[in-house]
């Protein structure tokens, strides 16, 4: 019972373990990014994967937002590509969700500029690549003129 001026929050009970606790993580899955509808499919797949891994709502939103930005970049700037979902585990037992976003477009001519907030080559706000980097725990880009682009990002559960 709370004293005057105190309050308690109701609990819905203990947090349920994720579906991947105690069993093998799901196999990697790839999704094409060729149409606007594919962008929605990627968002839904990533949302489901974040639940599968056991992320809370805030981390689910971070990962889905990053995935959406990266998939849109592959679609708009790379002429389409693929998004692959992987389920790594680190030596400490943390579960993660890794997104590998590839396109075969012209590549990013100036990666440093592209990672700068406000940089845009189109009508966007210029937060895509840099925003995705901030939302995820790990971030890497492999790109070059005429080589296409591969962005690999990972978010880890808290242990």
Automatic annotation (TrEMBL):
<dbReference type="Pfam" id="PF13581">
    <property type="entry name" value="HATPase_c_2"/>
</dbReference>
<dbReference type="InterPro" id="IPR050267">
    <property type="entry name" value="Anti-sigma-factor_SerPK"/>
</dbReference>
<keyword id="KW-0723">Serine/threonine-protein kinase</keyword>
<keyword id="KW-0418">Kinase</keyword>
<dbReference type="InterPro" id="IPR003594">
    <property type="entry name" value="HATPase_dom"/>
</dbReference>
<dbReference type="GO" id="GO:0004674">
    <property type="term" value="F:protein serine/threonine kinase activity"/>
</dbReference>
<keyword id="KW-0808">Transferase</keyword>
<dbReference type="InterPro" id="IPR036890">
    <property type="entry name" value="HATPase_C_sf"/>
</dbReference>
<feature type="region of interest" description="Disordered">
    <location>
        <begin position="1"/>
        <end position="35"/>
    </location>
</feature>
<protein>
    <submittedName>
        <fullName>Serine/threonine-protein kinase RsbT</fullName>
        <ecNumber>2.7.11.1</ecNumber>
    </submittedName>
</protein>
<feature type="domain" description="Histidine kinase/HSP90-like ATPase">
    <location>
        <begin position="58"/>
        <end position="159"/>
    </location>
</feature>
């Amino acid at each position: 019972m709370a004293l005057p001026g105190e309050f308690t929050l109701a609990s819905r009970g203990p947090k349920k373990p994720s579906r991947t606790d105690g069993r093998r993580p799901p196999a990697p899955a790839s999704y094409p990014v060729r149409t606007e509808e594919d962008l929605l499919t990627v968002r839904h797949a990533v949302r489901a994967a974040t639940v599968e891994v056991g992320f809370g709502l805030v981390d689910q939103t971070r990962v889905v937002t990053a995935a959406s930005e990266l998939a849109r970049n592959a679609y708009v700037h790379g002429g389409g590509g693929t998004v692959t979902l992987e389920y790594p585990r680190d030596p400490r037992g943390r579960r993660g969700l890794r997104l590998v976003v590839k396109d075969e477009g012209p590549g990013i001519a100036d990666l440093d500029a592209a990672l700068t907030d406000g940089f845009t080559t189109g009508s966007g706000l210029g937060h895509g690549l840099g925003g995705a980097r901030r939302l995820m725990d790990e971030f890497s880009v492999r790109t070059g003129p005429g080589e296409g682009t591969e962005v690999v990002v990972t978010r880890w559960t808290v242990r």
